[in-house]
Amino acid sequence: MIIAIANQKGGVGKTTTAVSLACGLAAQGRKVLLIDSDPQGNASGSLGVKKNELDFSLYDVLVDDRPINEVTLDSGRPNLFLIPARVELAGAEVELSAASHNQPEERPAFRLKNALVPVLDSYEFILIDCPPTLGQLTINALSAADGVIIPIQCEYLALEGLTQLKNTIDLIVSGLNPKLQIFGIVMTMYDGRTNLAMQVVEEVKHYFPQQIFNTVVPRSVRLSEAPSYGQSIFEYDPSSRGAQAYRALSKEVEQRALAIA
């Protein structure tokens, strides 16, 4: 199953969710490919990859048609593989936009989808960490994906961003990828001491009762610290509340995927 982790709002725990889910599913024995589709390369850095030492990145796949296998790295963790990103990926955004205007018959929105075809049977889960924009990189991810997981921060205006993303997903479904669906919504940075956090969760449950995950990810300093050590939360502090939450979420994602399959 190919799952994009997307939200055009920054700072909602998107990369933390992508990395933690990838590591959690791999720890459950699932073979996982994590694709870092954000030019900031935070998912790559979170797994300890030194981005300035990379020979290739997702840019080479999207722009130069380099085969996926030549770009894929072994993360050093059982069952977990990575297609890394570097800052040059921002250039792919520009080049794909130009191609969509100059050569519409090439459908640059399908570059990632087409590149993944040879490796679809090699992984049980392919997770794509999208940039916090609704540009060509996110469109490529959503065009390739079976479903999208949307992390939402438990704060005021959270639903406003969700509405924008839902409209984009509807456009992708009608024009590029009819099978795409909202696989799940995960509430992040939850602070149980505030009425607002509880209200936001209840509001999302009201509008998306089938899609929202039971697991709620707490606001956690340990989750924020882990990437600076190049470690997942399971390696950095396996008994923390953040690790427990993402362990539970990984099981929910696995069960939901099995139910769909």
Secondary structure blueprint with pairings:
Elements: E1 2-5, H1 14-27, E2 32-36, H2 42-46, H3 58-64, H4 68-71, E3 73-77, E4 80-83, H5 89-102, H6 111-116, E5 125-129, H7 136-144, E6 147-153, H8 158-175, E7 181-190, H9 195-207, E8 212-218, H10 221-225, H11 233-236, H12 241-260
Parallel strand pairs: 1-5, 1-6, 2-4, 2-5, 6-7, 7-8
Antiparallel strand pairs: 3-4
Q: For the record, what CATH class applies? A: Alpha Beta
CATH topology: Rossmann fold
Strand content: 15-25%
Output the strand order for the largest sheet: 3-4-2-5-1-6-7-8
CATH architecture identity? 3-Layer(aba) Sandwich
Cα Rg: 17 Å
CATH superfamily: P-loop containing nucleotide triphosphate hydrolases
When the domains are counted, the total is: 1
Structure, explained:
The protein is α/β, with parallel strands linked by helices and 261 residues long. The protein has one domain (2-260): P-loop containing nucleotide triphosphate hydrolases (Rossmann fold), CATH 3.40.50. 46% of the residues lie in helices and 18% in strands. It is built from 12 helices and 8 strands. The radius of gyration is 17 Å and the shape is globular. It starts with a strand and ends with a helix.
What is shown here, in short?
This protein is α/β, with parallel strands linked by helices and 261 residues long. It has helices spanning 14-27, 42-46, 58-64, 68-71, 89-102, 111-116, 136-144, 158-175, 195-207, 221-225, 233-236, 241-260; strands at residues 2-5, 32-36, 73-77, 80-83, 125-129, 147-153, 181-190, 212-218.
Features:
alpha/beta, 8-stranded mixed β-sheet, 261 residues, single chain, 46% helix
